[in-house]
Specification:
The complex is a heterodimer of chains A (about 300) and B (about 170). By secondary structure, chain A is of the alpha+beta class. Helices cover about 40% and strands about 25% of the residues of chain A. In chain A, the strands form two sheets. In chain A, strands 1-2-5-4-3-12 form a six-stranded antiparallel beta barrel. Chain A has a six-stranded antiparallel beta barrel with strand order 6-7-8-11-10-9. Chain A starts with 5 loop residues before the first helix and ends with a helix. Chain B has about 170 residues and is mainly alpha-helical. Chain B has one domain. In chain B, about 75% of the residues lie in helices and about 0% in strands. The chains are: A alpha+beta (about 300), B mainly alpha (about 170).
């Protein structure tokens, strides 16, 4: 009977304290959830989020340091064991990239010529801010990263974040020293994209899985979109620049088009934040003068 | 000799809260288990379960509420989600405490699984309501499995550290 411990449990049950405090705080939590339905982006909450990531930026850096060190060592050992295979892969990739480089150089020359003869006004090229990933959401439903660069480094809300392969997401919270990025795979992420070769503008919607889906907000293209079609940012809305590579169509299932991302949302360590400003300063005088000329003409 | 003893007792009293905050922070560190294919186990949940069961006074509800709120703010998600998940778990565990104390480890592990399952379902329901559509259930199931699998390691560490502190478990008295 001693193993069952009934006597002890009876004694404990008499000593149980009332749990009103827990019930009260649980009610407060549920109230906060309901309030979040209507005011999740309230400025007071945003300020609190910014302050918290700023405060914990050094803590996350310190706590994460041994983890990063271990990952680098493990990576080194793995690299050592697959050195031959990796060399072969790099050789092939290098040969392929060389042919692409020559094609790109030819195209660049042609483009420069056309821009000269057409007197094209090009927007300012985007600048980049490099940052390290110091935190990521470990929960099952919120897919975001915390970066080691913030407002003080030129990061702004809405800026695109890319790794060496493509788009990762966009900045949603900017503290002074750190910022939070909502990944394109998050359920709440909506990214304006363009499917090359089909003239189709659409939204890339996260599904809390590795593969986001395409949502068309205009008419769906008549031609079926085959796997492999390239998806890039469309620049609609003016937050992200046009043409950032996002991924390629993975397939269509039940009318839903899924996209394989180029960026590695699971293991990105160093990322770049695109400091892009949508061209808004229109010279009113010159515009009006041009209009007058065309009307007179 | 009084000073070291006092410092020790102060440290012992804040240790559970520190362990919980550290668990929340570890959840944010990019551990990338198995190249990111395995989610980070819900370490704060293990800490809350063990203290709620074996030493409920050490980790009171306001501390758990604050830790959940900190997790919400660090995640950048809607406020109240993690406090509600953790506090509901606390409520369930303290309610069944008399049943679990003194039981075999496997029975307690099973109880952990049941409470974790309820917590993950609540998380899924809240996040679905807040997102305006039903979210897939499998990310929560995946995290449930990983956290459940890690529980024995957490429990071993918990009892080992308490034994080092010289704590005599209430249910062993």
């Amino acid at each position: 009977m001693d193993m069952v411990g009934q006597t002890r449990r009876d004694g404990l049950s008499r000593r149980e304290a009332p749990r009103y405090g827990t019930i009260f705080l649980l009610a407060v939590s549920f109230f906060m959830v309901v309030f979040s339905l209507y005011g999740a982006q309230a400025s007071v909450f945003e300020k609190a989020r910014e302050s918290v990531i700023d405060t914990f930026e050094p803590v996350l850096t310190v706590v994460g340091a041994p983890v990063r060190w271990t990952q680098r060592r493990v990576g080194d050992v793995q690299d050592y064991f697959r050195l031959a295979a990796e060399n072969e892969r790099l050789r092939q990739e290098n040969a392929e990239l060389r042919s692409w480089m020559h094609e790109a150089l030819n195209l660049r020359e042609q483009l420069a010529y056309y821009e000269t003869i057409l007197d094209t006004k090009l927007p300012e090229p985007a600048a980049y801010v490099d940052a390290r990933v110091i935190g990521e959401n470990g929960g099952p439903y919120q897919q975001a990263l915390i970066l080691s660069a913030g407002g003080g480094d030129g990061v702004r809300n809405g800026s695109a974040v890319i790794d060496e392969s493509g788009l990762l997401g966009h900045v949603v919270t900017t503290g002074a020293k750190a910022s939070r990025v909502l990944l394109v795979t998050d359920f709440n992420a909506r990214t304006p994209v363009y499917i090359e070769g089909f003239g189709a503008e659409a939204l890339l919607a996260g599904r809390s899985t590795g593969r986001p889906v395409i949502e068309f907000f205009a008419e769906r293209p008549q031609d079926a979109i085959p796997p492999g079609a390239r998806v890039v940012t469309s620049g609609a809305g003016g937050l992200l620049p046009r043409g950032i590579p996002v991924g390629q169509v993975a397939g269509t299932s039940g009318g839903t088009i899924t996209v394989d991302l180029y960026a590695d949302t699971r293991s990105s360590d160093l990322v770049r934040i695109v400091d892009y400003a949508f061209p808004q300063d229109v010279d009113e005088d010159s515009g009006a003068a041009e209009q007058r000329t065309s009307l007179d003409g | 000799m009084a000073e070291p003893t006092r410092a020790r007792s102060v440290l012992a009293s804040v240790l559970p809260a520190l362990a919980l905050v550290l668990a929340v922070l570890l959840l944010l560190v990019p551990l990338r288990l198995f190249q990111g294919y395995v989610p980070t186990p819900l370490l704060p949940f293990i800490v809350i379960f063990l203290y709620a069961l074996y030493d409920p006074d050490a980790l009171p509800a306001p501390v758990i509420f604050a830790a959940g709120l900190l997790q919400d703010l660090l995640y950048g998600g809607p406020l109240g989600v993690w406090p509600s998940v953790y506090l509901l778990s606390l409520y369930l565990v303290t309610g069944q405490r008399t049943y679990f104390l003194g039981r075999a480890r496997d029975v307690v592990w099973l109880g952990f699984g049941v409470v974790l399952l309820v917590a993950m379902l609540l998380l899924w329901a809240e996040m679905s309501i807040l997102s305006g559509g039903w979210l897939p259930l499998w990310p929560a199931v995946y995290q449930f499995v990983i956290t459940g699998a890690l529980y024995p390691v957490g429990a071993y560490l918990f009892f080992y550290l308490r034994a080092r502190q010289g704590v005599r478990e209430e249910w062993q008295v």
